[in-house]
Amino acid sequence: MNPWPFVIAAYALTLLATAALVLLSWRSMRITEAAAEQLRK
Amino acid sequence: MHRFANPARFVKLARPATGWLLVIGLALAAAGIIGGLTLTPPDYLQGETVRILYIHVPAAWLGMAGWAGIAAASISQLVWRHPLAAVAGRATAPAGATFAALCLATGSIWGRPAWGTWWEWDGRLTSMLILLFLYLGYIALDAAERERGGEGRLAALFGLVGAINLPIIHYSVLWWRTLHQGQSITLTGSSIAPSLLWPLPLTMLGFTAVFVAVVLMRMRADLARTKLEARLRRAAAE
Predict the structure, then answer these.
(1) For the structural domain made of B20-237, what CATH number should be given?
(2) Across the interface, do B37 and A28 touch by the CB < 8 Å criterion?
(3) What does the alpha-carbon distance between residue B233 and residue B81 come to, in Å, rounded to a whole number?
(4) Which residues of chain B, if any, have pLDDT below 70?
């Protein structure tokens, strides 16, 4: 059994899930902080 | 801990820390992943599939460390009523759930070529699956409690009780000798050859820094949302 498809699948899944977690958290933080700041002005 | 009880002071510290942790974490994780994929030799028994270790072990560690963080935040909320404790618990849960799910998925992908099966109802795998369900339960309970205007005390209690599962996961390979291998890394040393081991601390540190950065981002978003809602209420009243 060729092991590389398994290695690639594991890495791709980890990198995609981590990137999605970081980007969604970053986006949510930026949007809410900007909205809160805008309402203060 | 109580020095950071003031949300404004916390945000002032968290703002620069978020970016630094993210940059350092991504750099360390990338170095560990590149090293693990290209520079280490294949294992004599597992062959190339051993490379999954460099992402599976950090995912397992963060899945468990996330719940330990929730348990610590729960104690802080229930005993000292720390104003940021519920925010910290709420911010940690989605990150912890993601890494618990990644631990199960990467373990399953590794299991197919190594064990000949995607899944086995083994003590370690089952207790880790229970941890993922605990995360999902915590997220749902906290959201329901918040919707009803609660302080999140029920979710905190759930976070504390769920911590019972952590020693079960840790000792499962000693209590029930089934398919999952025993501990390869302990406080006293490692049974893994140094030529294979060196990228692991890099990915462990890297993913941990990214995890903390994500928790800080989600805490900042939660605090900003509270501030935004208060300002909207004030604007509506005027």
Answers:
(1) 1.20.120
(2) no
(3) 25
(4) 1-4
Enter the pTM of the model: 0.94
Q: Are B82 and B76 in contact (CB under 8 A)?
A: yes
Do A17 and B102 lie within an 8 Å CB cutoff? Answer: yes
CA within 13 Å, CB half, B234: 9
B97-153: pLDDT as tens digits: 999 999 999 999 999 999 999 999 989 999 999 999 999 999 999 999 988 888 889
Tell me if B224 and A3 make a contact (CB, 8 A cut-off). no
Q: Of B181, B158, B223, whose CA–CA distance to B15 is shortest?
A: B223
Q: B228 CB near a chain A CB, below 8 Å? A: yes
The shortest C-alpha distance from A16 to chain B (Å) reads: 10
Chain A residues whose beta carbon lies within 8 Å of the beta carbon of residue B52: 6-7, 10-11
Domain ranges within chain B, ordered by starting residue:
20-237
- The 3-state DSSP class for residue B198 equals coil
Is the complex ipTM more than 0.90?
yes
